[in-house]
From TrEMBL:
The keyword ATP-binding does not apply. One of its GO terms (cellular component) is cytoplasm. Keywords: Cytoplasm, Nucleus, Ribosome biogenesis. This is SBDS family rRNA metabolism protein. Residues 155-164 have a biased composition (Basic and acidic residues). Belongs to the SDO1/SBDS family. SUPFAM superfamilies: FYSH domain (SSF89895), Hypothetical protein AF0491, middle domain (SSF109728). The lineage of its organism: Eukaryota, Fungi, Dikarya, Ascomycota, Pezizomycotina. It holds the Pfam family SBDS_domain_II. Residues 251-310 form the Ribosome maturation protein SDO1/SBDS C-terminal domain.
Length: 318
């Protein structure tokens, strides 16, 4: 007896090693099929060849069932005169990346480690200026996370009680407007920390974590800053820079040499011109010191330098 034959739809597409990117437009959900580990690289600008990103350069209603999106559905959602390639690009850029549990856990762990490294590199113990290890930062964040959203709400309640007590006792500030402003500031909820997520960049989440740590102080922390003297030949200051690393590591931007140098400086203490040399003394985060040095080496042809006058990070934690 011949073996039974399984008939499959002619439009069935079998894909392996696939990541889906979905975008809801109007009342329909559209999907594209991408290779794993390439979508984030493309969005970050590290991968530019779409052939290395897309398994099939087409738009689907359901990738797993091989249901290609009809032109009528795409036109209804994206408008008349659409180009399928442009729709693919929009889904790739704006869509939600679907990953499995294992991949999601790995990505979460990667972001978690990156957040800890950024935070540990930018916060110090205020008195000793010691840096904290990532393990110590992790424990402090876990302490905040265990409080959930309660820290901010409790703080608000305590501050509300203080204002109520002041009102009952008839106390007031010398300047009513200033007191009102302070009261409004005090009423603002404190930053909270509820853990990392894969939907935001590690840099953005690290800033959130630092704000929460500084606000609640589960361990004594302060922003680390280095005091630098930056000198540069005045003839170089107005020269245009076509491509240079920015202070926060984002995409390169155009500007003058002076603009780029100052973009690394968090706070300017003094700025002066003497003869043919410009001097700036200011504070820079340790993480930006390396970027500043690379910029000066690569863009000023040895006609600028950065000298460390004082470093907030003087000891490694035991």
């Amino acid at each position: 007896m011949p073996a039974a034959q399984i008939n499959q739809p002619s439009n069935q597409i079998r894909l392996t090693n696939v990541s889906l990117v979905r975008l809801k437009k109007g009342k329909k959900r559209f999907e594209i099929a991408c290779y794993k580990n390439t979508v984030q690289a493309y969005r970050a600008g590290h991968e530019t060849d779409l052939d290395n990103v897309l398994q099939i350069p087409n738009v689907f209603l359901n990738v797993s069932k091989g249901q290609v999106a009809p032109n009528a559905e795409i036109e209804k959602a994206f408008g008349k005169g659409f180009k399928r390639d442009e729709v693919v690009m929009e889904i790739l850029q704006k869509g939600e990346l679907q990953v499995g549990e294992k991949e999601r856990a790995q990505e979460l762990e990667r972001v978690h480690r990156e957040v800890l490294e950024i935070v540990a590199g930018r916060l110090v113990e205020p008195k000793t200026k010691r840096v904290y290890t990532t393990g110590m930062i992790e424990k402090a964040l876990e302490q905040l996370q265990s409080q959930g959203g309660h820290a901010g709400r409790h703080a608000g309640k305590d501050e509300g009680k203080s204002r109520e007590q002041s009102a009952n006792t008839g106390s007031s500030t010398p300047n009513g407007d200033a007191g009102e402003t302070e009261a409004k500031e005090a009423a603002k909820p404190k930053p909270i920390w509820t853990g990392v997520t894969t939907t935001k960049s590690a840099k953005s989440q690290a800033l959130d974590a630092m704000r929460a740590l500084i606000s609640h102080q589960p361990i004594p922390v302060a922003r680390a800053r280095m005091r630098l003297r930056i000198t540069c030949a005045t003839a170089m200051l107005k020269q245009a820079v076509k491509s240079a690393p920015s202070a926060d590591g984002d995409a390169p931007a155009t500007g003058t040499v002076k603009d780029k140098i100052l973009s690394f400086v968090e706070q300017i203490e003094t700025q002066d011109v003497g003869g043919e040399e410009w001097e700036c003394i200011g504070f820079v985060e340790p993480g930006n010191y390396k970027l500043l040095g690379e910029f000066l080496d690569g863009q000023t042809k040895g006609r600028a330098r950065a000298e460390v006058l004082d470093t907030a990070v003087t000891h490694e934690a035991d």
